[in-house]
Amino acid sequence: MRNSRLVLGLCLTLAVVFAMMAWAAASVGDLHDRLSKVSPALATGTVVVAIGVAAAFGVASVRLIWKLGHVPERPVKAPEDVVKAATIQVEKAQQVIEKVADPVAKERLATELETIRSDQKARRFHVVVFGTGSAGKTSLINALLGRQVGKTDVLLGTTREGEHHNYEIVTLDGTVVLTDTPGLSEIGEGGSQREVVARDLAARADLLLFVVDHDLIRSEFDPLLALAKQGKRSIVILNKQDRFVEADRDAILAKLRERLNGVVDPKDIVAVSAAPRPMPVRTVLADGSVQLEYEQEEPELGPLRKRIAAVIEKHGDALRAGNFLLRAHMLAKSAQETVSTERDVNAQAVIDRFQWITASTVFTNPIPALDLMATGAVQFQMIWEIAQAYGVEMTTAHAKMVGSQMIQLMLKLGMVEVTTSLIAGLFKSSFVGYAAGGAVQGVSMAYLTHISGQTFKEYFRSGQSWGDGGMQAALSHQFDLTNRAEFLVEFTKQALSRVATHVVNKTTGNKNA
After folding, report:
1. What is the pTM of this model?
2. Residue 393 burial by CB count (10 A; 0-12/13-18/19+): exposed, middle or buried?
3. How many CA atoms lie within 13 A of 109 on its CB side?
């Protein structure tokens, strides 16, 4: 678009210049004829002055046209709203990290947060080299740096983790960090884990160098498209161009530009030779014999170097701002997932503990009418502790209110009868027989406590929302999820074992149980 405007402007300018020159020439000629009748010397001097003025005007016009065609592209500034959003996201990530209990996980997340802040202050541009294991990623980095920094091998999986190296761009105010990654679609032990590492590193890049040595296959196209949807700028590099004849190389480049239309800028698709094959050279010796030697060719990286410099110098700040926001978002999400996992584990521990407390309480209570009352007291305490596990402040009155509502719903939906009947049937077929009436009640109440606890666990996980259908729908959903005979068989065995152990310990007076 910019080039077409320059061409149009040049044509219009030349048309105006030629018209003015024609008019000036006609005017000067007419003036010369008139002055020559009065004074030939004056007429000649006037023509000389006119020619000088025209020459000066022509030179000025040429300089103006040259400047229009060589105006340096101004760097794209980082959008202020993106920078502000990224800063807010970093603060949010820090707040979530402070809630992490596991010291190892907390230190890992805090280190990542400090790295993000450090990169922002130090103007570090992260360029990640990405692609399949055989495309020559490490060879490309070696060639760009001009020294051997990474191992290359015919076997896949040479690069195990991200390896970072500084790459110098003389005209750039900042540091470019090149990162090698494990290859995509690697086979062998640990290949899938290394691919996960590669995708994670690519997601954290300001700019991607996506290396291929042929037309794109699905295992390359899909991650490239996914990263583009994240806003990642990619330079696609056709490596090993020395292995193709010129026509084949041009055909592959054309195919890449066609397939990546709308995903990658056509100017960001270049061909290189990071490690050209040695060229055979025949030398005739003094005795007339011919000796064949192989000379190593220099890498061909000129177009790539220019493109990397051009993209970073013009778009670097904008790319860094967008990636800063993405990295902060990913960190906040990772921290939140860690906190959620810790809370889920703690809440599940509360549920497990209270379902056994319920079983033993009901089993030892000889008056059935008091069973639900005793279970209700246990349930209120369980609800309060689940709320604490999720960092929710809940009063005792509130816990009793929602706990009472849950018990009433269980009675209304007939869950007590259904559960007792099902567990009694299981007990009849077991070695315990009919003598386990108390155990049936205990296990039934423990099972209902388990369902109630899972329902409240989802309630607090969802930000104290029951979802569509309210408490009744949430309770019915959990009942349907866990109402499986296989589960109840195992649950009953565990409950029976715990209740029996409790009774034995009570009978023998074992205070340490």
Report:
1. 0.67
2. exposed
3. 28
Report the distance separating Cα 407 and Cα 173, nearest Å. 67
Tens of pLDDT, residue by residue over 423-469, are 666 565 554 444 455 667 777 787 888 888 999 999 998 888 888 88
In one-letter notation, the amino acid at residue 275 is A
Three-state SS letters, 232-275: CEEEEEECCHHHCCHHHHHHHHHHHHHHCCCCCCHHHEEECECC
Q: Report DSSP state, residue 513.
A: -
Instruction: Determine the Cα angle at 486 with ends 481 and 490, to 5°.
Output: 105
pLDDT, one tens digit per residue, over 341-375 is 999 999 999 998 888 788 777 776 655 545 665 66
β-pair partners for 234? 208
Per-residue confidence (pLDDT) for residue 34, from 0 to 100: 63
Higher pLDDT, 271 or 27: 271
Strands (E) across 286-428 are located at 290-295
On whether the CB atoms of residues 421 and 463 are closer than 8 A, the answer is no
Which of 78-92, 189-203, 268-282 bottoms out in mean pLDDT, i.e. has the lowest? 189-203
Per-residue tokens: 446:
């423990």
DSSP 61-72: HHHHHHHHHTPP
Across the range 86-92, mean pLDDT stands at 89
Per domain, the residue ranges of the chain are 2-69, 80-334, 365-508
From residue 261, how far is each of 45, 222, 225, 340 by CA, in Å?
Answer: 63, 14, 11, 41
Which helix (H) or strand (E) segment holds residue 2: the answer is: helix 2-38
Q: How many residues does the chain have?
A: 513
Nearest to 347 by CA among 294, 385, 402: 385
Mean of pLDDT values over 170-177: 84
Are 328 and 93 in contact, with CB atoms under 8 Å apart? yes
CATH number of the structural domain 80-334: 3.40.50.300
At 306-329, the pLDDT tens digits run 999 999 988 888 888 888 888 888
Q: Is 191 helix (H, G, I), strand (E, B) or coil?
A: helix
Token pair in block for residue 322: 């967008």
How far is the C-alpha of 206 from the C-alpha of 127, rounded, in Å? 6
DSSP string, 428-444: HTSSSGGGGHHHHHHHH
Instruction: Name residue, tokens 């388990």.
Output: 450
**Res. 1: pLDDT tops 60:** no
Say how far apart CA 301 and CA 483 lie, in whole Å: 65
> What pLDDT, on a 0 to 100 scale, did the predictor assign at position 77?
72
Q: Are strands 279-284 and 290-295 parallel, antiparallel or unpaired?
A: antiparallel
Give the single-character DSSP code of 188.
Answer: S
